[in-house]
Amino acid sequence: MTPAVFLALLTVACFVGSTISGLIGMAGGIFLLTVLVLMGLPLEVAIPLHAAIQLSSNTTRLIAYREHIRWPALKVFVLIALPLPIVGLQLVHVLNEDVTKAIIGVVVLFAAWAPKGGLAQLPERAAFGIAGALSGTLGVVIGATGPIIAPFLLREGWENEEIIATKATGQAFIHAQKIVAFGVAGYVLDDMLWQLPPLIAAVIVG
Questions:
Q1: Rg, Å, the chain Cα set
Q2: Which residues contact 13 (CB under 8 A, 6 or more apart)?
Q3: Number of helices followed by number of strands (H, E) in the chain
Q4: What is the pLDDT of residue 12?
Q5: Whole-angstrom distance, CA of residue 45 vs CA of residue 193
Q6: In whole angstroms, what is the distance from residue 27 CA to residue 144 CA?
Q7: Cβ neighbours for 153, distance < 8 A, ≥ 6 positions apart
Q8: CB-hemisphere CA count at 13 Å for 58?
Q9: pLDDT digits (tens, 9 = 90+) for 57-90
């Protein structure tokens, strides 16, 4: 596959993934990560590249819905998630790539078939604390944690705009965190930086 064809296919995937997220509020990220892996990128490249693309997508969404962010819940999410990529990177070194890809496959199935109802029985702070712990730890391991944390964030009594805004802001933080964590760990995207502008444009348009 030539670099031009690779970039064209990836740009289309970014647009489709962003459109999916815009329509149903989730699943676009795991779709894009699956495409990156199927296109042959190693996980140490696919996950930070996915993070950079999804950071742009979620930032666009949080700007559009910024007035609806539920800050108290988001603060719990961020504070719990903040130190946990350290744990996640240890898992990256322990798990081989085939096992990690299998876990990603399970997440894809979970995104497709799991109930999407919120865990209303959990208090808000507990739900966002668990979501932050899962995202902070697993974000650097499997890349896309949206389907895993969605049931904790789909709160009864919240307006749809509040769910979208708070989830997008939390996930933007997680994606930024992953980029920093992989950079500190020595994984860089120098060879793919030139591809980011059309990919970012595709997720914004989508």
A1: 16
A2: 31, 32, 35, 36
A3: 10, 0
A4: 92
A5: 11
A6: 9
A7: 118, 127, 128, 131, 163, 166, 167, 170
A8: 27
A9: 889 888 989 999 999 999 999 999 999 999 999 9
CB-based burial of residue 66 (10 Å sphere; 0-12 exposed, 13-18 middle, 19+ buried)?
exposed
**Two structure tokens written together for 23:** 């329509």
Q: Decide if 179 contacts 48 (C-beta within 8 A).
A: yes
Residue 56 pLDDT > 80: yes
Tell me the angle at which helices 146-153 and 97-113 cross, rounded to the nearest 10 degrees.
40
Region 99-119 average pLDDT: 74
Q: What is the mean pLDDT of the chain?
A: 86
Q: How far is Cα 181 from Cα 165, in angstroms, rounded to an integer?
A: 24
Sign of CA dihedral 86, 45, 194, 9: negative
Instruction: Name the strand (E) or helix (H) holding 159.
Output: none
Most confident among 19-23, 128-132, 187-191 (mean pLDDT): 128-132
Reduced to 3 states (helix: H, G, I; strand: E, B; else coil), residue 30 is helix
- Give the whole-angstrom CA distance, residue 139 versus residue 133: 10
Q: What is the pLDDT of residue 120?
A: 60
> What pTM was computed for the model?
0.88
Residue type, 76: V
CA–CA distance, 103 with 117 (Å, rounded to integer): 22
